[in-house]
Specification:
By secondary structure, the chain is mainly β. The protein is globular and about 35 Å long. It has one helix at 99-106, and strands at residues 3-5, 12-13, 17-18, 25-27, 34-35, 40-41, 48-50, 57-59, 62-63, 70-72, 79-82, 91-93, 110-112. The chain contains 1 helix and 13 strands, in the order ββββββββββββαβ. The termini are far apart. Helices cover 7% and strands 30% of the residues. The chain has one domain. The longest helix is centred in the last third of the chain and has 8 residues, at 99-106. α1 links the parallel β12 and β13 (110-112).
């Protein structure tokens, strides 16, 4: 499997995409509000994750994804519990002045203000 597409009716996801070594792309749909556990685990191919506007809560996004370099987090996010991503390996892309920007800076991540 190289791609996963969730319908717009999905509001919350947990540990649903596991050990997909060839996974390159995840479309979370437009209705997503929360990520409740490590959503993507064990993908050797995924390089970036883009969360849609509307996501408010993150309790981890990905783990054991060695090529993951970029995570896009919208300004609708108001709480991040934990990211198991190494700050030296991943850049957080988010709008300037967002909760995610401050959280990323506080936790040692590189921030890129290019999420539109």
């Amino acid at each position: 499997m190289v791609a996963v597409s969730l319908p717009d009716t999905v509001k919350s996801v947990g540990a649903v995409i596991m050990e997909c070594k060839n996974l390159k792309f995840v479309d979370f749909g437009k209705g997503l509000v929360s990520l409740n556990k490590t959503t993507v685990y064990g993908s050797d191919a995924i390089e970036s994750i883009y969360l849609p506007k509307g996501v408010e809560y993150i309790n981890n996004i990905a783990h054991n994804c060695p090529k993951l370099k970029d995570v896009y987090i919208p300004d609708t996010v108001t709480e991040i519990v934990y990211l198991s991503l190494e700050p030296e390996d991943v850049s957080i892309h988010t709008p300037s002045g967002s909760y995610a920007e401050q959280w990323a800076l506080d936790n040692g991540y590189t921030v890129v203000n290019d999420y539109e």
